[in-house]
């Protein structure tokens, strides 16, 4: 677990401009190891759901989106789900003929978060995910955005155990911020998400166009015993958008989706991110 660091220069929301996403070429990605070739669970029918709390407060975070074809994502989705990109999100991306789906990667280090029995200090989090259209029986109109997420960093042991016992891909590990500098004009970043039994995933780039983050969403996590449903509201007072590279382990399902171990991606990077009004419905 990393020691929580002092804050850099805050980004004022009054300075937020239109989102301009920049692809940064010739950025070297970190050398990664630890592949996971196991396909994620497809999510069988569930019964007797249990609801547990979760949440994250005052986080540094990087969220990456790599354009892919929906055809490459579809085999890894639970039955009835369809890979997509919401129109309001698609409009913020540069034109790309492949943007009918994205592979997402995110990593956060937070002042604290919500565990099973209270607040957990210095909590980290991360996951692999994609936008989806859920089947009608599972759709929740209160949440404009829907995702399927696969391997997920859950470093607080009691919650990780509760998820893993239900066959869900909750992993121990860490989010390592090798390079992170919050300035008034952008955030260069070099981050690795280390997931036990699933490998290491890297994000390297520069976010330099001012933007904000405010979204209400539901994430469906497929496992051996059914689907978990993560609900939350994510907010950031201000941050930056930019471009760079994703790196994923050789032999992983992420590499199969991307067609290789490295891919260009569009990023959001910010400090002061909160995930509130949150819960996890377990199968």
Strand order, main sheet: write it out.
Answer: 2-4-6-7-11-12-13
Radius of gyration: 17 Å
The number of E-state strands comes to 13
- Structural category is mainly beta
Q: Bin the helical content.
A: under 10%
Low-confidence stretches: 1-35
Mean pLDDT equals 85
- Order of helical and strand elements: EEHEHEEEEHEEEEEHE
Key structural traits:
mainly beta; 283 residues
SSE layout and pairings?
Layout: E1 50-53, E2 56-68, H1 70-73, E3 82-83, H2 87-90, E4 101-115, E5 118-121, E6 124-133, E7 145-153, H3 157-164, E8 170-171, E9 173-180, E10 187-195, E11 199-223, E12 226-247, H4 253-258, E13 262-282
Please, could you describe this protein's structure?
The chain has 4 helices and 13 strands. The chain is mostly beta strands and 283 residues long. The chain is globular and about 50 Å long.
Task: Kindly summarize this structure in a few lines.
The chain has 283 residues and is mainly beta. Helix content is 8%, strand content 51%. It has a seven-stranded mixed β-barrel.
């Amino acid at each position: 677990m990393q020691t929580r660091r002092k804050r850099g220069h805050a980004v004022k929301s009054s300075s937020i401009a239109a989102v301009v996403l920049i692809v940064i070429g010739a950025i070297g990605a970190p050398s990664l190891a630890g592949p996971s070739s196991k396909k994620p669970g497809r999510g069988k029918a569930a019964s007797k759901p249990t609801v547990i709390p979760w949440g994250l407060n005052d986080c540094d975070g990087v969220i990456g989106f790599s354009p892919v074809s929906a055809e490459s994502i579809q085999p890894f989705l639970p039955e009835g789900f369809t890979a997509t990109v919401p129109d309001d999100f698609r409009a913020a991306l540069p034109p790309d003929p492949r943007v009918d789906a994205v592979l997402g990667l995110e990593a956060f280090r937070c002042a604290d978060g919500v565990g099973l029995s209270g607040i957990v200090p210095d909590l980290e989090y991360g996951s692999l995910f994609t936008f989806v259209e859920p089947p009608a029986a599972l759709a929740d109109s209160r949440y404009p955005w829907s995702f399927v997420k696969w391997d997920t960093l859950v470093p607080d042991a009691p919650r990780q155990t509760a998820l893993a016992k239900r066959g869900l891909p909750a992993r121990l590990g860490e989010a390592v911020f090798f390079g992170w500098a919050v300035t008034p004009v952008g955030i260069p970043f070099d981050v690795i998400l280390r997931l036990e039994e699933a490998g290491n995933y890297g994000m390297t780039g520069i976010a330099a166009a001012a933007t904000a983050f405010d979204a209400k969403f539901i994430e469906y996590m497929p496992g051996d015993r059914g689907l978990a449903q993560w609900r939350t509201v994510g907010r950031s007072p201000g941050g930056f958008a930019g471009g760079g590279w994703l790196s994923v382990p050789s032999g992983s399902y992420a590499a199969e989706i991307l067609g290789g171990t490295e891919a260009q991606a569009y990023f959001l990077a910010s400090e002061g991110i909160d995930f509130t009004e949150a819960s996890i419905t377990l199968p």
